[in-house]
Every structure is written in C-alpha cells, then in structure tokens.
Amino acid sequence: MLTTLSTLLNAAKQEKKAVGAFNIYNLETILAVVEAANRLKSPVILSFGEGYFTHAPVETIASIVKEICTPLDIQVALHLDHAKELKSIARAIRAGFTSVMYDGSALPLSENIQKTKYIVEYAHAVGVSVEGELGYMNNEDGTCEEGLDLEKGYTRVRDAAQYVNCTGIDALAVAVGNAHGIYKGTPTLDFTRLDEIAQATTVPIVLHGCSGIPDDYIKKAVSLGVAKINVNTEISTGAVMAAREFLAKNTEKGLRFETLLMDARHTMSATVERFIKLLS
Q1: pLDDT digits over 123-161, tens only?
Q2: For the stretch 81-120, what's the b/e string if a residue is b when 16 or more beta carbons lie within 10 angstroms of its beta carbon?
Q3: Residue among 111, 108, 100, 120 at smallest CA distance from 206
C-alpha cells in the first residue's frame, strides 16, 4: 500500500531503524526494489528524481507504482528526489506521489527557508510529506565543481535547527561527509556533527549518497538518528556490470533483450535486499 514518507520515517525513528530509499527509473527498477521489500516484508521508499523526467514521464512511473504496490501488504512511499522546480513538485503530486524533496541546498539559508516553507505549505495541504536539504553535497551524477571544498558545505547545527523550525519539513537531508556517486577511498563521516544535528532538531534525518559507505558507518549513523538512507549508485553500477557479464557469457544470435533485463533486475533486487537487511 502507498503511504507518506513521514509515516515511514517517524516509525523508523521511534524504533531506531532506517528505511531504504532506492532510485527507480523504469519498470525493471521498480520491480527490483518492490520484490526485495516484499520478500522481506519491509517498508520501502521508491525514489524518482527530477532529473529522470527526460527518461520517463513522471505520470507513467506513478501509475506503474500504484498498480504494483496498492495490493501489497507492505508500506511503500513514492518519493520525488532532488526537485528544484515547483512545477516538477506540482506535477509529481498531481500524479500521486506521496512525498517530495525540495532541494534548495545551493541557496542562501534565508532563501532556502523561504522557498522550502512555501513547498511545505503547498504539499501538506494535500497530505504529501516534504524532505528538505541543508548543506552542500556534490552533484547527483557524482561530479563536483573544480576547486570546491565540500567540507565547507557541511550542514551547520544552528542552521539545521532554524531551518527545521521555520519550514515545518518532515525530514532533513544533511551533508556530513557523504557524497553522491562513487567515493574515492573510504568516506569520512562527521558523526559528532551528525549527532549534534539530530539532538538539535525534531525530524528524522536523511543521509544521501550511501553507496560505498561501510556498513558499520551506516549502522552508526542510524543509531544517531538517521531514519532514511538513499542508495542509487551501487544498484545502478551493479546492474551495468551484471549486463556486461551476461552479454560476455551469452553470445548466441538468439539472445533476447528481456532476458538481459531480467538478469539485471535480479542483481539489483539482491543489492536492495542487502541494504534492507542492514537497516532492519
């Protein structure tokens, strides 16, 4: 069944657990995530980014998710990820998304608060949850502006408290050393800062860029108040590697595309299952 992000995260925070948010782009990725969650009877978040609108209509994604998930006994949130445009948020809400993320992290604090507050009022009026972001991370595709010091963009504790109190968001995404894409070496998370943010705010904390973060780091982050972890790169790259291996092993002329997709789907589902177990 479909539910809101706040429903899932408030329950997870109470139980000192986290819910996995996994990126989806098409039918195969939706099935990969849902099948893993259903096997484990675990709640899950299906995350479709604003940047994917050119790959698939948001209305089509919402229709597929509703068709597949409505009959299930598990709770599923359909979440719009990293939206910077109100028109994208409005479009997703009209399509049936139960949660949206407004990404004003590159804006000055006052402007981020002002725009996030407006999104919260807009979304809450129709029962949709809102995730906000404070602190600077690299781009969603893993790239970073040359010469930019990401550590200077870490979420500040005082700003986090002000941002949460002034906007009314349901979840707060923070930057404490996490990053999008593939890490160059082992990431270093500022757990002291994370703990202080959790203590200074009242909403569940979100950690983006969790692909490649060691399992024990993720567990520690959850123990400090992180209730949602985002995973994309590890699933996506795993599917690409699986497809390459499949094509290398199967060279016959009669090879069919749907067989390749099924193999990649099973690989993605196994990765999702591993993360769900890690968070339980």
Answers
A1: 999 999 999 999 865 444 444 444 444 555 789 999 999
A2: bbbbeeebbebbbebbbbbbbbbbbeeeeeebbebbbebb
A3: 100
CB proximity list for 135: less than 8 A, separation 6 or greater: 105, 153, 154, 155, 156, 173, 174, 175, 176
**Closest Cα partner for 27 from 274, 246, 261, 235?**
261
pTM of the model: 0.91
DSSP assignment letter at 106: T
Is the separation of the CB atoms in 150 and 112 below 8 Å? Answer: no
Catalytic residue numbers, as ranges:
81
Task: Give the distance between the most distant pair of CA atoms in the chain.
Answer: 62
Q: Are the C-beta atoms of residues 210 and 230 closer than 8 Å to each other?
A: yes
Write the CA distances from 228 to 5, 6, 72, 113, 162, integer angstroms. Answer: 9, 11, 21, 21, 21
189: its two tokens: 């998370």
Q: Are the CB atoms for 79 and 46 separated by under 8 Å?
A: yes
Residue 150: Cβ-neighbour burial (10 angstroms; 0-12, 13-18, 19+): middle
pLDDT in tens, 199-221: 999 999 999 987 778 899 999 99
End-to-end CA distance of the chain: 20
Measured distance CA(52)–CA(145) in Å, rounded = 21
Distance CA 117, CA 101 (A): 12
Asked if 20 and 229 count as a contact pair (C-beta separation under 8 A), the reply is: yes
